[in-house]
Every structure is written in C-alpha cells, then in structure tokens.
Amino acid sequence: MGYIGTLLLNGLGFKCTKKLFRDTLRKRWRFNVGHSQVFLYFPPKTLLMKVKQRFIHIHGLLKNQIFDTLKLLKVFRRPDCYKGIGLKYPDEYIPLKKGKVRQ
After folding, report:
1. Long-range contacts made by residues 83-86, C-beta under 8 angstroms, separation at least 24?
2. Contacts of residue 92, Cβ cutoff 8 Å, sequence gap at least 6
3. What is the pLDDT of residues 6-62, one digit of tens each?
4. Alpha helices per DSSP H over 1-103
5. How many whole angstroms separate alpha carbon 3 and alpha carbon 32?
6. Which of 56, 74, 86, 99 gives 20 to 30 Å between its CA and that of 14?
7. pTM of the model as a whole
8. Residues with Cβ within 8 Å of residue 99, at least 6 apart in sequence
9. CB burial class (10 A; 0-12, 13-18, 19+) of residue 16?
10. Contact criterion met (CB below 8 Å) for 13 and 35
11. Which CATH superfamily is domain 3-88 in?
12. How many C-beta atoms surround the C-beta of residue 21 within 10 A?
C-alpha cells in the first residue's frame, strides 16, 4: 500500500539519472533540465523514485511527503508559458501564450 506521485519531463534533452554516492551510500538523482541546467537531488530514504521514459514516479507511505517532494522538484524548472516545456504533472493543463505576431 502507499501513494504514488508522478511528474512529466516535458522538453528536448530533459533527463533524469540515478547514481549511488560511494562515501555515504545514498542515492542521488541528477536532473538535466535545459541546455546547461543541472541539479542534484537526494531523496529521503522513505521514498522510492523510478524513471520510465519521460515520467518520474515517486512511491511512499506518506502522502504529504510525496507531494512536497513533487513540489520541490517542480520548482527547479517550472513549465514555460510560451512553449510548455518544464516539469509538470501529467494531467496539468498549461494555457500557452501567443508569441510575437508579425504584421
């Protein structure tokens, strides 16, 4: 039993990889969001994170902890209002603005 939260990596070149730190034996997640934007995240030991294609699934027993983690990850790359790229929830709708219109 437990809860599942999901984020969508929406954008060209957005990746998420998992590596194990040797000195502390903690898992760290590396997020490539954008051309040179990289951030590292150390999840709590009570959460299990999995990546399948463009989706990040977070499993855990505490609902608040899962959704706080999703909010924290989403802050690193909010969805763009012109192209719609960024970290977002799968069912989230982002109204896109029009760009410059030539006359």
Report:
1. 84/10, 85/10, 85/11, 85/12, 85/14, 86/10, 86/11, 86/33
2. 79
3. 999 888 878 888 777 666 667 788 888 877 788 888 888 888 888 888 898 999 999
4. 63-76
5. 26
6. 99
7. 0.81
8. 82
9. buried
10. yes
11. Ribosomal protein L6 (3.90.930.12)
12. 11
Q: Which single residue is written with the structure tokens 């760290």?
A: 28
How much is the average pLDDT of 83-93? 90
Burial class (CB in 10 A: 0-12, 13-18, 19+), 51: middle
Separation CA 70–CA 81 (nearest Å): 20
Q: CA 53, CA 55: separation in Å to the nearest integer? A: 6
Whole-angstrom Cα Rg for the chain: 15
Amino acid letter, 42: F
For tokens 């990746």, the residue is 15
d(CA 81, CA 78): 9
CB 18 within 8 A of CB 49: yes
